[in-house]
């Protein structure tokens, strides 16, 4: 029997199975209108456009449970999707059209705010900024924060173990999870949602779903840690003559303010120039350009800690010693927002220049300056005029080491060439320095080759064993994270 | 063929397999002297004494790898053991004698202190206090701290996801892990040891080994987060007339000091009286007895935060409002130690009274006062004179709700009766209130029945699927955590 016949027969059988599932799901949860479906088929960075007969939009955990059970029964793969802000196409279906998109957007109830317990329980489809506002209204703070806060959803944040701008003080998304509710690949409900700070009762299975990008279960709800609300915020934008001084400045800042430092973000002069050129209404915050900048933010819930004085004194000391050469301070409000724009809108400036090849690298903070210098030299030697755009969460050892096409080059062509010819050298360097090729974006579909190349073999084998054991029919987000 | 013959044949075959393994392991790593072996066979709380032909004491990760590979090949189960301080007999072999004890005590090298990166890499057999001292010598602090710090080992701390007295500010042992090295049940080396704060590259498999009590792999080394050293410590011992006020006091303390609160420990008057009676050299720290006490500790790395003033002002406010009726402050040194003795030596006082039935319960902090009141009433109604000893990490919602035999009763008999007749009511109450029957001690061998009774079925099924996939021959710590 010719293989092509087999394949078409299988494809037809696949369609039959999808039909069976679609007929069994309540009509109001199914969208087959391809104009609507199309919105769910392209990833945020426009790497790829997949295909799907329908988008399923459950309203409740029980809806999700039934859908997954049906798909498990009929062998129909599901691609879970939150706010669709993955940088690695982790929520985009394949091109074959044999998968269904499962959007969690309608699971957006806030189930409980328990203020004395410092916890918030909410469903997977809640937009991050909504949860931040909910915590704020309760007099508390949800410390998870990242650039896409207005559109990303908490289920996606957890499935990718999101990082962001407050990791230094509060940790990654994983560190903020007290409890989890999820539907497993066989349709069973995993209910470990209690917002308990201590619960050592067997394997902490929820950890397995955090960062698994929807391949081991569908997160439907979460109990998150809240913290006391900051009543004082001091933000500084500093000019740093030598990148080697970064770790020393961070250490001094943390020691002097007692770990009030919430953010310690690096901005290269390359990136700042690109942003100021792209957004003519923005002003340089300092009197003269410098090779390196740091956006430092200190926050405290204490009304009695003299935070602004402490940060001012710290800066004076750092300037006396020459570690910092210039700086400006903002205490909240519009001034603070203006400084944050200079950090958070860099990706937009890259897009305005044709987009960037992104390298989301982490190393130890002790090696970060050396990495930036060596990787920059490498780009200078090999990139044929590519423009560096380096910024990121250097307090966590995480740098977005990006490269924009030279002026005049066709960005798409240049980026493809760079990814093939130069990016491997950058990743080799990071890994040789004990670092990681993927700090906070995850693997998705885009970084599978990198995981094969750099991942510890025992880890990859263990990942496969777990995936096979938990999702033997491979129905949850196939082709992502694990092969 | 009679079953007994089968069994004895199997037992003999088991002995043959053990012989094969023991002959293949280098002699200097094997101890068969039963006088020495005996030290490894009884658990800390003396629940049980197991049997083992030998104790294996590897010196390197490669030794561990070879031993596990040999045991996998020949089907010989291993019981990993650290400082043997488990409260749940998690490191004690069974009575059949068909398991070998694997002590990690000789894997005690400190591999690296990376001060700028705030990390410490050390082997599994390092005693916790040694690691604390190592961090201190580097001008930093390892914030994991618990009563058994002088004897527990870091591998055991991680395998049980230890809690302790600093969880409120710094989290559980899990939260302090940056990287892990472990030997998997097939002898493969899992090397994800890099001390990176961000590394989202596939499933975070190390999470699975943390808290798995040695059933999924043998932890051989860990990279831990360090923090800036506290330069100010203020400790307070407070009298609280109403237990309901606990959460309010904690909230006020955290808000006023900006989350400097490291410890918020409860001591009941029952426990304090028992301790003062058992240790005549100790003095009551306040002028008069009270039903409830809190040991509160605030710490900061900042030299400029007026911490002592802040805590004093806070106490004045709380006393004016009647939430606190009496209190004493210590700023470090011997005064501080004297207050901590009143909290940390309570277990000794229980032992001096014949030991206690321990219920290591957690609930949300919002429900903790209600739990203590209801559970106390329940003991009063059903315990036939049992003496309450309640204390613990109430800032984390974790209370050690213990019961000591009445004066005059035979402790062993009474405790067995209580565990059978009354303990289930206490656990039922905790779980009905959304809490956990096991906050920080783990499951081990002792709490398997409780996990069956209270665990989410999907969670238990998932645990079994994972154990079967990762350790198909069931050679790592069989009979613990999962059946």
Automatic annotation (TrEMBL), chains A, B:
InterPro entries: FAD-bd_oxidored_4_C (IPR004113), FAD-bd_PCMH (IPR016166), FAD-bd_PCMH-like_sf (IPR036318), FAD-bd_PCMH_sub1 (IPR016167), FAD-bd_PCMH_sub2 (IPR016169), FAD-linked_Oxase-like_C (IPR016164), FAD-oxidored/transferase_4 (IPR051264), Oxid_FAD_bind_N (IPR006094). The keyword Ubl conjugation does not apply. PROSITE patterns: FAD_PCMH. One of its GO terms (biological process) is respiratory electron transport chain. Keywords: FAD, Flavoprotein. Pfam families: FAD-oxidase_C (PF02913), FAD_binding_4 (PF01565). Its cofactor is FAD. GO terms for molecular function: catalytic activity; FAD binding. Belongs to the FAD-binding oxidoreductase/transferase type 4 family. PANTHER family: BLL6224 PROTEIN (PTHR43716:SF2), D-2-HYDROXYGLUTARATE DEHYDROGENASE, MITOCHONDRIAL (PTHR43716). This is Putative FAD/FMN-containing dehydrogenase. It comes from Azorhizobium caulinodans (strain ATCC 43989 / DSM 5975 / JCM 20966 / LMG 6465 / NBRC 14845 / NCIMB 13405 / ORS 571).
